[in-house]
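Run log // design_07
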């Protein structure tokens, strides 16, 4: 297996037919089978049975696929971004809601923006110009100081490549190079010139996507055919975060080393080791035996059981995850009919799924905007479980004899398979055969967020990384968005979404209520559950923070 060392840098298919009456019971039985323990051979992290005060060990489904934020967007990529990358701005933190304060666990708070790589900021030109004053003396993992040149190069790179970060630029009114630009004012001062004012102009800077690249190093690796060093940056981190990469074995583990010059102070945990452990059952066993300190992405069933284990705690964050089905309107022609989409929504037993699969944690998904975000409005949800109504709508749409489609999912998100089996069983009751199509993480995310979108439907557990209704709607539902996963084209909705980009704050509640109602009434996504985020940890881990990308930052964490 290829190893990338950084030490010298200076710095399911179908299940048997069952009656709906027994679907929850049978689903639970299936969960138990899916979660059977695996052998632990090969999963001893750093050959350490117990963690030292300077090493945090994390068991995760997958290591990063790479380090270029424009193209590496899998679960493993997002997980590493919390510590490897620091955005221009960030969010203030507060004690985590509902968690015993003795645990000293925190969550980001959307009510207040805080300094990040930029120590201060201001608006000019009637709100169309954002001026950011960078901190001085910040050194990358390659030994170069952060300057405004790095900011200009990084932001111009997004314009040129139109990658994953571009959606944030467009929804903040600086995505079009014809009407927006980036400006170096002096060595440490950088400006974003937008086409129109927007609250997102400032708020978007607090996303992990808005971290900066060490352009001094990156420019050494550009070529005529690769003017933005894409190939090099995919394999080489080039950042100013709280941790640097010390060693990386793709598909095995990644080791982070504390950045002693981090502006927030040197992290007390010297090293963080993320080990790839694909089996969630194995991650559970490793945590119980004390071979890891944190186990991420466990199934709800596993979380429910492990919370009684000695020296283990399961912490619940309200979070921003939403679980739903994406019906691809270009991938499967019947999904262009609103009656088919609404039929699936009525045939989805959300409350039973929430109780049995998610152990009652979370709520019914009533909006594409998480309920913890400003301008949330769940009034557009009207799909309480009603299989008779679902059958009626299918018949009206010409599918009285039933319907068959496939739904892809990835086992990198463990509960998607369990959720798929439950939905598969429920939909059989209305004559719909939903076949489950399991794909490897890279293939799944490439299909979902890439340009081709080769799937009929997708099971998804997704999030909006910026706590703002613009971000939670525009990126997923505007016709020309690169991550319009349902491939919906709705002229009326597009008009509202465009208006939201320039809406003054006093008009925002009205326009976002209309947008959310339109999306839900049209059943552009088939809503299921808002599960929050849970993590299983050893009880010696304290002072860490949940972030809006649903990762955890260890910059202030301690091992007691």
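design_07 sequence
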């Amino acid at each position: 297996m290829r190893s990338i060392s950084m030490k010298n840098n200076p710095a399911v298919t179908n299940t048997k037919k069952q009656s709906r009456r027994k679907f929850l019971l049978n689903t639970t039985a299936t969960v138990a089978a899916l979660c059977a323990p695996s052998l632990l051979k090969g999963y001893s992290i750093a050959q350490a049975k117990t963690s030292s005060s300077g090493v945090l060990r994390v068991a995760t489904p997958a290591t990063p696929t790479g380090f270029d934020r424009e193209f590496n967007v899998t679960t493993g990529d997002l997980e590493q971004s919390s510590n490897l990358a620091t955005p221009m701005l960030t969010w203030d933190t507060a004690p985590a809601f509902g968690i015993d304060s003795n645990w000293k666990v925190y969550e980001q708070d959307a009510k207040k923006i805080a300094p990040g790589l930029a120590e201060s900021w201001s608006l000019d030109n009637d709100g169309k110009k954002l001026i950011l004053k960078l901190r001085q003396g910040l050194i990358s993992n390659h030994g170069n100081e952060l300057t405004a040149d790095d900011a200009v190069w990084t932001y111009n790179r997004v314009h040129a490549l139109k990658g994953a970060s571009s959606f944030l630029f467009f929804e903040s009114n600086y995505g079009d190079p014809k009407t927006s630009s980036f400006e170096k004012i002096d060595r440490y001062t950088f400006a974003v010139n937008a086409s129109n004012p927007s609250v997102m102009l400032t708020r978007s800077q607090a996303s992990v996507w808005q971290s900066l690249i060490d352009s001094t190093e990156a420019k050494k690796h550009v070529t005529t055919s690769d003017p933005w060093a894409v190939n090099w940056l995919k394999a080489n981190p080039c950042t100013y975060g709280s941790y640097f990469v010390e060693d990386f074995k793709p598909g095995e583990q990644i080791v982070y080393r504390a950045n002693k010059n981090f502006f927030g102070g040197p992290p007390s945990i010297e090293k963080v080791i993320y080990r790839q452990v694909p089996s969630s059952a194995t991650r559970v066993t490793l945590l119980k035996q004390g071979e890891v300190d944190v186990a991420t992405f466990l199934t709800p069933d596993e979380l429910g059981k492990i919370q009684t284990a000695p020296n283990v705690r399961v912490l619940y964050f309200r979070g921003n995850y939403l679980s739903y089905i994406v019906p691809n309107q270009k991938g499967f022609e019947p999904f262009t009919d609103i009656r088919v989409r609404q039929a699936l929504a009525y045939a989805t037993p959300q409350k039973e799924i929430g109780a049995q699969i998610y152990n009652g944690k979370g709520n019914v998904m009533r909006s594409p905007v998480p309920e913890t975000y400003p301008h949330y409005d769940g009034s557009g949800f009207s799909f309480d479980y009603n299989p008779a109504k679902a059958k009626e709508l299918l018949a009206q749409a010409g599918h009285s004899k039933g319907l068959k489609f496939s739904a892809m999912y990835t086992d990198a998100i463990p509960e998607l398979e369990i959720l798929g089996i439950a939905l598969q069983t429920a939909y059989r009751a209305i004559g719909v055969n939903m076949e489950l199509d399991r794909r490897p993480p890279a293939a799944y995310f490439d299909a979902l967020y890439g340009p081709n979108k080769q799937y009929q439907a997708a099971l998804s557990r997704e999030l909006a990384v910026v706590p703002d209704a613009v971000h939670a709607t525009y990126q997923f539902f505007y016709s020309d968005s690169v991550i319009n996963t349902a491939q919906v084209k709705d002229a009326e909705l597009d008009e509202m979404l465009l208006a939201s980009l320039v809406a003054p704050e006093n008009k925002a509640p009205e326009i976002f209520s209309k947008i959310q109602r339109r999306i839900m009434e049209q059943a552009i996504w088939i809503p299921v559950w808002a599960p929050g985020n849970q993590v299983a940890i050893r009880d010696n881990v304290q002072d860490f923070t949940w972030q809006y990308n649903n990762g955890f930052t260890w910059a202030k964490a301690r091992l007691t």
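The first helix runs from residue 23 to 34.
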